[in-house]
Design a protein that fits this description.
Elements: H1 2-27, E1 56-67, E2 70-84, E3 87-100, E4 115-116, E5 118-130, E6 135-147, E7 159-174, E8 178-191, E9 198-210, E10 217-227, E11 230-244, E12 247-258, E13 262-272
Antiparallel strand pairs: 1-2, 1-13, 2-3, 3-4, 3-5, 5-6, 6-7, 7-8, 8-9, 9-10, 10-11, 11-12, 12-13
C-alpha cells in the first residue's frame, strides 16, 4: 500500500512540473536571433535590424546647414517601435526653418519658406539574419505626406503631395568591432499641384568601429543622391556616446564632397530607448 501511495505522489509531482513548464512556455516568448549592427546617425534605420517585439525608441534631432544665400535649421521628432519580432514602425515629423546668410551678396537667393516638411510613416522588416555570415538584410518603405509652407497654410492645400521611398538595407559585422551598412532605394514624389512625378535615387553607405564592451562608436556615413540629372554626395563623420542606460547622443558634422548649394553642416541626435519586457 505504501509503495502505491509513493507512486501516486511521484505522478502528481511530475504532472505539476509538466504543468509549470507548459505555463512557462506560454508566458515566455521565444525570440529570434538578433545581431548587433552599428546604425548610421543621419539617415537612420526605422528600427534595429532583427528588432524584437516590444522595443521602442524616441529620437530628437537638430541640425544646421550652410547653403548659398541662406542657412537651414532642421528639427525632427520621431518614435519607432516593434509590434512583432523583426518588424519596425516609425512616425516622424521634420521641421525646416530658413534664415538669410548675410555673407552672400544676395541673402534672399532661392531661400525656401519655413515649413513642417511632412508627416513621415515608415515600416521595415528584417527578412534575413545570418549568424554564420554575421549579416542582416531588411526591406522597408517610407511614405511622406508633403505639407504646405507655413506662410501658405490656409491659402493652399495642406498636403502638397506624397513621396514613396522603398528601400533595401544590408548590414555586416567584420569581426567583433567593425560594422558596415548599405541603405539604398528610389525616392518618387507625386505632387498634387502638377502632373507627373519626380524621381531620385539614394545610396547611403557607412562604416563604423564600435568601442569594445560599449554601445559607443565612431564612423563615417556617405550620403549619395541622384536627382534632377545631378549627383550629390556628403560625407558625415560621426560618433555616438552613451550618456546613461538607454540614453545616447550622436554628433554628425557634414562635409559636401560633390556639392550643389550645400556647404558645411552639423547635426545632433538624442536617442532614448525605454526598457522593454523580455
Amino acid at each position: 500500500m505504501l509503495h502505491y501511495l509513493i507512486i501516486v505522489m511521484l505522478l502528481l509531482s511530475c504532472l505539476k512540473a509538466v504543468a509549470q513548464e507548459v505555463q512557462l512556455a506560454d508566458t515566455v516568448e521565444t525570440r529570434p536571433l538578433k545581431l548587433t549592427h552599428a546604425e548610421p546617425l543621419y539617415i537612420d534605420l526605422i528600427r534595429d535590424l532583427g528588432a524584437h517585439k516590444g522595443e521602442k525608441e524616441w529620437n530628437i534631432g537638430a541640425g544646421l546647414t550652410d547653403n548659398l544665400g541662406y542657412d537651414r535649421y532642421e528639427f525632427l521628432v520621431e518614435y519607432e517601435w516593434a509590434p512583432i519580432n523583426r518588424l519596425g514602425l516609425e512616425v516622424e515629423v521634420p521641421v525646416s526653418l530658413y534664415t538669410p546668410n548675410i555673407s552672400d551678396l544676395d541673402p534672399q537667393l532661392n531661400r525656401p519658406a519655413d515649413r513642417i516638411e511632412s508627416l513621415k510613416l515608415a515600416a521595415q522588416y528584417t527578412f534575413l539574419v545570418s549568424d554564420k555570415y554575421q549579416t542582416s538584410m531588411a526591406l522597408g518603405t517610407i511614405t511622406e505626406f508633403e505639407l504646405a509652407d507655413l506662410n501658405r497654410i490656409g491659402k493652399d492645400n495642406m498636403v502638397k503631395g506624397f513621396l514613396l521611398n522603398p528601400f533595401l538595407v544590408m548590414a555586416k559585422r567584420w569581426g567583433s568591432n567593425m560594422h558596415s551598412l548599405v541603405y539604398t532605394g528610389p525616392r518618387v514624389l507625386f505632387p498634387f499641384h502638377k502632373s507627373g512625378t519626380e524621381v531620385g535615387y539614394e545610396i547611403n553607405s557607412s562604416v563604423h568601429y564600435m568601442i569594445p564592451n560599449s554601445r559607443n562608436f565612431i564612423g563615417l556615413e556617405l550620403n549619395k543622391e541622384f536627382s534632377h540629372g545631378e549627383f550629390h554626395m556628403v560625407a558625415r563623420p560621426q560618433m555616438r556616446i552613451t550618456i546613461d542606460e538607454g540614453l545616447m547622443i550622436g554628433v554628425v558634422p557634414g562635409i559636401p564632397i560633390i556639392r550643389g548649394e550645400e556647404r558645411l553642416s552639423s547635426f545632433v541626435r538624442l536617442i532614448y530607448e525605454p526598457r522593454h519586457r523580455k
